[in-house]
């Protein structure tokens, strides 16, 4: 049996691909974290759902794979893309123990892209994507990546910039980036992308250091060429100009 | 007037978001590189199109902005996402000289995500995206980014790995990555994503070094944790395991 891991985009029904909606339409049961499952329920209220809270990803994916092994048509939903910090790799790892379960990933618009469109064009050239969550990654590894990405003048997109337990992580990340990037580097934050309360702001890296991000915020840090054009963050697509 | 810069995804109509299709439906004129405009024409054969060849991006975008300034509803189409190596930043830069033109970006599924879904889940953890095209970027800058991204154990996605004039660039990039990544690092290539002739392959970094990529290929290089699970490339979402 096939199990689908489906990226549903930022949250609005409009941000989903046709492929994602088709796969969800055919699913017997839809599995996901409560918040994302609720978004899908608005489109498909009649479906069967298996939902669970945050930090129960492994258990949830295992249950999903078991249901697929039992012959049901299962779709695991993730916000944004299914692969980027999503459930796709976890489902692959778990499904490896089940001979009759085949995994199929349906890509979606990740927050770096939907948030990017909201704030301008921050990722118009080479970039690095780094999560500040140290739940599954040693903080030293995160620091090294921030350091190297800044030293090579990448534009940077940060996922999970903050949480209750990690209120100063964005500040610590900015301090590392400030070793290589100018304090006036153009940055942006995008919040509640595609949902109620959607907002964004453009600011300098120095200002970002003191910004209070929450877990629904995606953060963009420019490269040395990034500009503020009419209140939008724009990274040119090259170093030889128009 | 508003000008829309629209990411249409990998190429199949199914890979487009509802938002992208809605915006194209309302456009008076659709502007783009010949190949991508042709893909859109299949969906909207009755529209007016302004198409031009590769390397004429600046001229094409200028024409698009002028048409918007003249009061027409213009959509500039890009394959994948509009922001990632797309036309969005170029349109922002050009539109800055026109007081009555407002830019709006519509995100799409970039090749790192659609190609990623095809080969497995290669970008399940922090990653860097690097274009090997040195048309607008000094090669030294590209080398530095390859070096730093490898040193920090990022998964890496390469755009534009090759062209007629740059047939050995992927080999040179692999040699740089091999300074920090093991020769048996799990890698993948995705070709003609979402179009006729779609295919992918999983291979080691040593094998990738001798792979002949073309300009329709997207390349993925794993981090130290990336695995081959049943012929798919899977990067776990953290370093503390399931």
Question: Overview of this structure, please?
Answer:
- The structure is a homodimer of 242-residue chains.
- Chain A has eight helices and 13 strands.
- The first copy, chain A, has 242 residues and is α/β, with parallel strands linked by helices.
- A five-stranded parallel beta sheet of chain A has the order 3-2-4-1-5, sandwiched between helices. A five-stranded mixed beta sheet of chain A has the order 7-8-11-9-10, with helices on both faces. A three-stranded mixed beta sheet of chain A has the order 6-13-12.
- In chain A, helix 2 (34-43) links the parallel strand 2 (29-33) and strand 3 (48-52).
- In chain A, helix 3 packs across helix 4.
- The first copy, chain A, is elongated and about 55 Å long.
- The relative contact order of chain A is 0.15.
- Chains A and B meet through helix 1, helix 4, strand 5, helix 5 and strand 6 of A and helix 1, helix 4, strand 5, helix 5 and strand 6 of B.
List keywords for this structure.
five-stranded mixed β-sheet; Cobalt-precorrin-4 Transmethylase, domain 1; Precorrin_MeTrfase (chains A, B); 2 domains; 4pyrrol_Mease (chains A, B); Methyltransferase, Cobalt-precorrin-4 Transmethylase, Domain 2; alpha/beta; EC 2.1.1.131 (chains A, B); homodimer; 31% helix; five-stranded parallel β-sheet; 242 residues; S-adenosyl-L-methionine (chains A, B)
């Amino acid at each position: 049996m096939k199990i689908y891991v489906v990226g549903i985009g930022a949250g609005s029904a409009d941000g989903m691909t046709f492929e994602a909606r088709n796969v969800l339409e055919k699913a017997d049961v839809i599995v996901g974290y409560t918040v994302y499952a609720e978004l899908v329920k608005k489109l498909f209220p009649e479906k069967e759902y298996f939902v669970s809270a945050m930090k129960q990803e492994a258990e949830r994916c295992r249950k999903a794979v078991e249901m697929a092994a039992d012959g049901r048509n299962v779709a695991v939903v993730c916000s944004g893309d299914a692969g980027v910090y999503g459930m796709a790799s976890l489902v692959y790892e778990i499904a490896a123990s089940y001979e009759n379960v085949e995994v199929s990933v349906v890509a979606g618009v990740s927050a770096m892209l939907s948030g990017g469109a909201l704030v301008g064009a921050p990722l118009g050239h080479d970039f690095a994507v780094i999560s500040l969550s140290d739940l599954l990654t040693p903080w030293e590894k995160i620091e090294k990546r921030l350091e190297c990405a800044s030293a090579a003048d990448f534009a940077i997109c940060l996922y999970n910039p903050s949480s209750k337990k990690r209120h100063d992580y964005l500040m610590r990340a900015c301090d590392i980036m400030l070793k290589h990037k100018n304090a006036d580097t153009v940055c942006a934050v995008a919040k509640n992308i595609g949902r109620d309360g959607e907002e964004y702001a453009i600011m300098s890296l120095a200002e970002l250091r003191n910004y209070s991000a929450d877990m629904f915020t995606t953060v963009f840090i420019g490269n040395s060429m990034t500009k503020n054009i009419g209140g939008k963050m724009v990274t040119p697509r090259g170093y030889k100009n128009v």
